[in-house]
Amino acid sequence: MSFVETRAESIQTLSSVASDAPHIMQAEDTPLINKQRSDLCSRCCQWLWGRCWRPKELKSRTITVGRLAAEKYPANVIRNQKYNVITFLPLVLFQQFKFFLNLYFLVMATSQFIPDIRIGYLYTYWGPLTFVLTVTICREAVDDIRRHQRDKEVNCQRYVRLLSDGSKESIPSSKIKVGDLIIVEKNQRVPADMVLVRTTERSGACFVRTDQLDGETDWKLRLAVPGTQKLAHDKDLFEIQATLYAEKPQKDIHSFIGTFNRIDGTPTEESLDVENTLWANCVVASGTALGLVVYTGSETRSVMNNSAPRSKVGQLDMEVNQITKVLFGAVITLALVMMCLKGFNGPWYRYTFRFILLFSYIIPISLRVNLDMGKAFYSWAMQRDPTIPGTVVRSTTIPEELGRVSYLLSDKTGTLTQNEMIFKKLHLGTVSYGTETFEEVVLHLRKAFDKQQQSEMRGLSSGKARRSELSRVLEAVKALALCHNVTPTYESNDRSENGSDEVEADQHTSQEVVYQASSPDEVALVKWTEESGLALIHRDLTTMQLRTPNGAVLNYTILQIFPFTSETKRMGIIVKEESTGEITFYLKGADVVMSGIVQYNDWLEEECGNMAREGLRTLVVAKKTLSEEQYYDFEVRYNAARMSVSERVVRVAAVVETIEREMELLSVTGVEDRLQDGVRPTLELLRNAGIKIWMLTGDKLETATCIAKSSRLVARTQSLHIFRNVVNRTEAHLELNAFRKKQDCALVITGDSLEICLQFYQHEFMEVACSSPAVVCCRCSPTQKAQVVKLIQEHTGKRTVAVGDGGNDVSMIQAADAGVGIEGREGRQASLAADFSIPQFSYLQRLLLVHGRRSYKRSAALSQFVIHRGLIISTMQAVFSSVFYFSSVALYQGFLMVGYATVYTMFPVFSLVLDKDVSSKIALTYPELYKELSKGRSLSFKTFFSWVLISIFQGGIIMYGALILFEDDFIHIVAISFTALVLTELTMVALTVRTWHYLMVLAELVSLAIYILSLILLRGYFDSEFIQTPQFLWKVSVITLVTCLPLYILKFLRRKFSPPIYSKLS
């Protein structure tokens, strides 16, 4: 449908709405009581359906400038809260009782309200459950209140709205509507998606920072609509008759299709694209902007791109959950065995349930609390580690994942490299200049401009004769100084408007210049031209100024700019030199596309390959001189293509391609992206730790290969297999077979070939790739990066960690089991989306080999000890019940049951989070120790069943020992067995500890002191006279010794004859 037809349809729709307005108003004025009930119900149902379930339809819109939109659009509010006052408690409780452990204890605790199956006091079951739920509810409430406060702060930010009489009013962000004219000051956040209609700069230019939107820290140039920028005053916007068409809301932040139509006076139609927009959450970096709101709330680009990250659950949590289910099976089995021995007589189901309640402590409710508190401690320790300052843990639920990593997937630019570009090489075909010979370029430029002043270079610049080295250097450097999107900014913004160019140039000489551009490559090139003598001193929407080595100023008019895109892989500009009137089209881009655009030559491909092997990022620079007739013909066709509403991008590209033919090749540039500090030793250390490293990058194959070698991603002893480009199934099959025959060989593959392999041979490709020591995927899209992560997880079942620094790495980071973001030059988007944030790549070695190791080992020991604590008391209960005629009576009543898992044993057991098997120095010196962790042997069914046997042995010894040694009263059994139980737990913690910490000793002593105090004060549970006798002391000592001494002997023998690897190093 053409734009005219769309406009006609919109006008017709508006007319029909206007004609129906009296009827609508009449219906509104009708009292509700007179309406039919069926009609009311029908409307309510339709409203509820549309509000809650019907998918929302996104529509394009035509907005009249200066008037609010008639249609209803989403409110401009940001809401990140999970709950409201009504839903908070139900949803939090649902989230908690979704877990098997909590649901099980809820059923157990609720059953205590039934008198027939009540075991003891209500608080013995409800106390621990209430404590766990209270901690969780408070944590969720605090988190949600913080989210609400952040939302409120954003929604209440004040903005200035322009009114029809020219006055201004201050309104909160939440009150902004489609059609409003909003003024955004410098350093202020843009509150909604807007089209830029006016700026304080006469040229209509405005810079914005988009780091919170796309992760890029460089400033972006935005342009006001020419038809509104040329108005005398802001209030004139309400006096003109104009409409603005905007496409339906899209996710793509890099494109926009719209048109501006002025109906009064001489009708004009102007094309709008992404350069005319201000997206929500951008920040205005220069001047003041006046924007027309086109999208609000949930229809803004930033909100539409917010995808909820998957909720990550650690493998250790899943293993604990499996063990919990086994324990539940043990509870049911034990209860049924007791019933079989007792006999199914009388109300057997009541007795069965009482036995289930008695043995319910096999599944410890404190397990989840202990693990969560442990994780919080590990996260705190990571952030407080002085050797890795600046580390931030954003997800405290998965620190153990860092201890079991098998695959590390890393971005290249900004992650392995610094994203700090340095110009290294300029090749002109016959001569090459490097860092050592750049002085020659400076001398050539001085000579060239001196001769040009004397009018001796006129003939040489025509290109007809064979050009001298001097002119080739001049043309190459001039092309680099003009073909870019860089804008120089100065500390002082006060510019002399009436001064001459020379005066202005002199002013800039004394000021420090800062170059702003969306690409660090372009900044590196422009900085180098300045160092060479040809400096960019001023740029606005339509003009550019260069200062020559001899101080003269060259003025250029910018006629057209063709920005770089990932599809075209090139950037172009058409400029007109004011002094000569010469129109020149400059183009620079990747060699893969430029080789088909420039004139035939025999050196381009070879030199690009050489530079790539040196690890340099290459750009091919070319030019074409246009006559005025050629340019005006192109301009007419280009403007027509830009006005099209449908297939605009395709039509514009087709027109631009008509002048991208037979261009003159000027030079090839090489820019170095430096490796980050400590990248080589870190990668080598991680590889020795058994971690396979994959590099996923959007860069070209040659550069990626060179960085892989220079960073030691590929070991010196390993060879490289470059997977050739394949386009069909047969080629993919042959190439896979060729790679399968190679041993200990790293794989390099492009994104296109990867797509073909995954389409036809997904399983086979993943098999050979995962067996390779290292893999480099170049020309990868963000979606492909996330896809590779998921395929590794599915194919191997191993744990993955993804590392990146830019917005294009977010999907990969969120897909991995643990995501690590690096705060780099590309902004904080990856850092904010990651589970862990670090300032530099080298911190990974300590994060994984030290903190990851300790988190996993400690959590495994803690979870098994908490389970042991429940198993031993349940074993004692089973022995007690079986001895006393299978009675379903609790061995320990009231506070003893609660105190056992809390005040008596909690501190020593939790102090295991301070234990460490090896020092950080040994962990980093011998990274091979890390290999054992990926096998998951610290917490497995084997270790679990060994703890079950220990619990049965110790529980049986304590209970039978107490029964044999007790003499007079039942209370003596309780005193002897419970004291032996507590002392056994404290001794077992001491036997488990590998490296003592002063807090561990303190925890043991405090717990022992609390228990001794309890023996004295709790006269209802203990016979105060009996516990003071020598008989009590020797009986408890003998039982404790019998329970712990055999285990100590076994541990000693094992360390003597089959020591663990780490003990040999210690």
TrEMBL record:
PANTHER family hit by this protein: PHOSPHOLIPID-TRANSPORTING ATPASE, PROBABLE PHOSPHOLIPID-TRANSPORTING ATPASE
Transmembrane portions of the chain: 85-105, 125-142, 326-345, 351-371, 866-886, 892-914, 944-964, 970-991, 998-1020, 1032-1050
SUPFAM superfamilies linked to this entry: Calcium ATPase, transduction domain A, Calcium ATPase, transmembrane domain M, HAD-like, Metal cation-transporting ATPase, ATP-binding domain N
PROSITE patterns in UniProt: ATPASE_E1_E2
EC top class, as a word: translocase
Designated name of the protein: Phospholipid-transporting ATPase
Ranges for region Disordered: 488-512
Enzyme active site: 411 (4-aspartylphosphate intermediate)
Known cofactor(s): Mg(2+)
Topology term for the membrane: Multi-pass membrane protein
Binding annotation for ATP: 411-413, 522, 564, 588, 617, 697-699, 779, 785, 808-809
